């Protein structure tokens, strides 16, 4: 497909090109209810007990569909998967774990990945999540990209995360209504976690969240576009996927398809339902200059406003909970200065912030090295210990 696209380079802009959305999940459980607007954020819309998973021995699995809000204020239905441990006690701790979802298709959602046999879609954090379950914690795993798999729509991920917590706390059968809650995530999952923490005071002020641990967070999409998009880059596929995902979320404000040449549209179509490995393989070594019939959108104030609205470095709110933040100073995928600037702003605002500069040489190894300390930090917050700060 990419070879076909490259052969089409130079074609004029596709002025009438509409956004490309993922193939809808055929399971009616995931459908958007006709009366969605009649519900409040966090309202439970449907519940489904799921078969047990060998990945999480002894845990029961429950799918919860709930009402959330998209990036432009409209009602949507979203899904979270709740793992309830064998050792669960009523009102025991709840951990909302925002998994990395570098994907554009329905099959990339965590609730689907948990039940796939595809080795490329394994939940590699299962060891850490089992450690949490053995402590008696319930674990919620939200599909934080929403019903359109809007990769890159960071604010959306934060809102879905918070509404997922609201929903599971409202379900008597899960016995979590008075549970202490914490959140954790890395990379794209860290982005949803970080936005949930920052949005909580305004979006879900009634939630009392004990702490949020976030690592390798892309905190400025404007800088990400410049870093990954304009010059050939091995991770260009992620930048392309973010453009597709953001167009799905903001079709009127960010119509990137209208600015693509034939090669761009061919690449877009090739990865429109892809997950991480497919997206990375299709985009590796390319740049936006190959696929844009016009670069006028780079300077368009409306487009820039969308990117800024999804850049935590530029958001004026701050978390009302303690934060653990970890990253590698050598991370080639994430603009580290945006993380540093956000940390400084949080410190200046009085957030109890524990910063861990990770010795990892790149992005993914930093997740592995930092996760044990993040979970230990969360354990202390759920136990009610005072949060440390190294501001």
TrEMBL record:
InterPro entries: AB_hydrolase_fold, Lipase_secreted. GO terms for molecular function: triacylglycerol lipase activity. It comes from the Bacteria. Residues 1-17 form the signal peptide. Keywords: Signal. GO terms for biological process: lipid catabolic process. Gene3D superfamilies: 1.10.260.130, alpha/beta hydrolase. Pfam families: LIP. This is Lipase. It comes from Nocardia aurantiaca. The lineage of its organism: Bacteria, Bacillati, Actinomycetota, Actinomycetes, Mycobacteriales.
